[in-house]
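Design a sequence for this backbone.
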């Protein structure tokens, strides 16, 4: 499988500074791997678990203090920081 293009778009949810809309965009060339039932199953698992894993790692990198500080700043300013 070859990833040709991928990206993540994160936008604040209007009216709720503690939430973020997360969109994953990917264009891949699965080659012949997705032509088999097992290959298709693996590709689907990656598509489902990849974004969740990314967000968990992002939260870990930011740390709970940074996330709490960002939410507090957004509340003080009346919207997303």
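Sequence:
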């Amino acid at each position: 499988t070859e990833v040709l293009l991928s990206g993540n778009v994160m936008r604040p949810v209007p009216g709720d500074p503690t939430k973020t809309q997360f969109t994953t965009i990917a264009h891949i060339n699965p080659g012949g791997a997705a032509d088999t039932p097992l290959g298709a199953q693996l590709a689907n698992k990656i598509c489902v678990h990849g974004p969740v894993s990314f967000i968990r790692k992002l939260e870990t990198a930011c740390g709970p203090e940074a996330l709490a500080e960002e939410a507090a700043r957004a509340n003080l300013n009346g919207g997303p920081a």
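The chain is about 50% helix and 30% strand.
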